[in-house]
């Protein structure tokens, strides 16, 4: 039986297994779900075992475990290291979901007329890494597995992958491979398949502004004592100038500038701004002057407030001049910017612009470097060939705005090119309410991954 007919004859089970995994609320950020995150790791381990790995293990860390599994068919064959994550983002706010986030249902959408799976983690990343488990099962069952496989599926991607960082550095031999294959990104559309060749880095900060030592009556003290929320709002507003450039001194010093040629190339990717605006219900796009939307997301750095709080936010009105104000602020970084340096510049600047009437504390959360993937490697050519065969189209290289901080470590510590062959769509609402993943994307992904293995082994033989 061929790989494709194996997939076709096990469609229902392949889908049901994913739905089962999606029912486990493996939210790594929220300690309330600790048991469920461990349960998801067990699920991944046994799914690797039933798919046919030689051995699978749960590698404990000081946080959530890394599930490792391998199948060595022939020591002289090339090895593909598959990376993915079984943890998911918190599902809050629950009331904005049309159906419960951990009770997957399938229904059609504008982009997925054939049906999409609605559940937290469906696209990011359970539905995507699970394609690799099923592609592996299908190749093995069809007797067509042409590469060795190593699976490394972690449970802390959504909280910064700190333990994976240590795991990779400490297991360079175990993880020895010829390429890393990752499906945790998007493509332009089913009609226009793409391969991601760039991801942004990240520096994530928390800011705490303190005014008076206790909440005050806003009449008794208002106008005479600085309000930390007012101060924070003003500081935040000053972080962008009139051209929407970030005002932190030194922020752009190392930013890689691209040639006119490269920018033109980048802007050739199909992009319909009217459709983009319509789908987001926005009247105008926004961003750094002098750059297109594709460039603003792909090759320019950003600063965004992710959350801001303080004072009274309950029912009705309470007249209070609060003691404290907080904000979570993230900066997306581009090649050559160092997340630790940016975190330092951010802290120095916030302290410099704070009025003397308040004190500012800055605590860095997590960070990571940007990644750029070369397009002249065997792995990239294998991805192109696989997409050509599955979709009948030439893949477009794209640079995405999201971050997978561990990808740059794969390059540094393992010397491997990560191939970012994802099958999600930007409209899949990852990290948002009503996250979903196309059923067709899931099956096309399984097929394309199997073709990647075939082409990678072929190209390897001929190299
Ligand atoms: N899969 C995403 C990254 C991503 C999203 C890449 C969209 C390309 C397109 C990943 O799970 C993620 O959410 N990463 C975080 C960073 C992490 C350190 C929390 C992100 O980008 O915010
Ligand atoms: Mn992800
Ligand atoms: Mn994510």
TrEMBL record:
Superkingdom of the source species: Bacteria
UniProt domain Peptidase M20 dimerisation: residue ranges: 197-356
GO biological process, any: proteolysis
Protein keywords: Hydrolase, Metal-binding, Protease
One Pfam family it belongs to: M20_dimer
GO molecular function term, any single one: peptidase activity
Protein known as: Acetylornithine deacetylase/Succinyl-diaminopimelate desuccinylase
């Amino acid at each position: 039986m061929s790989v494709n007919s194996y997939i076709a004859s096990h469609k229902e089970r392949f889908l049901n297994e994913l739905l089962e995994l999606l029912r486990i609320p493996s939210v790594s950020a929220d300690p309330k779900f600790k048991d469920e995150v461990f349960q998801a790791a067990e699920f991944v381990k046994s799914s690797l075992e039933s798919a046919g790995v030689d051995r699978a293990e749960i590698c404990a860390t000081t946080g959530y475990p890394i599930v490792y599994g391998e199948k060595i068919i022939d020591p002289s064959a090339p090895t593909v290291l598959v990376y993915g994550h079984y943890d998911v983002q918190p599902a809050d706010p629950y009331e904005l979901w049309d159906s419960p986030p951990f009770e997957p249902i399938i229904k059609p959408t504008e982009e997925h007329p054939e049906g999409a799976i609605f559940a937290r983690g469906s696209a990011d990343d359970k539905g995507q890494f699970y394609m690799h488990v099923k592609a592996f099962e299908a190749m093995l069952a069809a007797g067509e597995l042409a590469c060795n496989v190593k699976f490394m599926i972690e449970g802390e991607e959504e909280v910064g992958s700190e333990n994976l960082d240590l795991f990779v550095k400490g297991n360079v031999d175990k993880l020895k491979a010829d390429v890393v294959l990752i499906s945790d990104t998007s493509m332009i559309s089913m009609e226009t398949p793409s391969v991601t060749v760039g991801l942004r880095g990240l520096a994530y900060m928390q800011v705490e502004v303190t005014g008076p030592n206790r909440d005050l009556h806003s009449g008794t003290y208002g106008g005479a004592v600085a309000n930390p929320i007012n101060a924070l709002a003003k500081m935040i507003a000053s972080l962008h100038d009139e051209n929407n450039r970030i005002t932190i001194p030194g922020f752009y010093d190392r930013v890689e500038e691209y040639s006119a040629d490269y920018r033109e190339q980048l802007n050739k990717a199909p992009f319909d701004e009217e459709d983009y605006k319509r789908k987001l219900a926005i009247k105008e796009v926004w961003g750094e002057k002098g750059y297109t939307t594709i460039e603003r997301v792909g090759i320019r750095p950003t600063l965004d407030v992710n959350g801001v709080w303080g004072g009274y936010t309950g029912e009705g009105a309470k007249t209070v001049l609060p003691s404290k104000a907080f904000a979570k602020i993230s900066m997306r970084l581009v090649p050559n910017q160092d997340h630790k340096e940016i975190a330092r510049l951010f802290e120095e600047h916030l302290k410099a612009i704070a009025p003397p009437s308040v004190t500012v504390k800055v605590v860095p959360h997590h960070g990571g470097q940007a990644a750029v993937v070369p397009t002249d490697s065997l792995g990239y050519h294998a991805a192109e060939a696989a997409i050509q065969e599955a979709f009948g189209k030439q893949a477009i290289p794209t640079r995405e705005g999201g971050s997978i901080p561990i990808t740059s470590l794969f390059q540094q510590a393992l010397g491997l090119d990560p191939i970012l062959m994802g099958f999600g769509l930007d409209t899949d609402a990852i990290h948002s309410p009503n996250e979903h993943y196309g059923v067709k994307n899931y099956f096309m992904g399984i097929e394309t991954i199997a073709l990647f293995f075939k082409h990678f082994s072929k190209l390897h033989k001929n190299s």
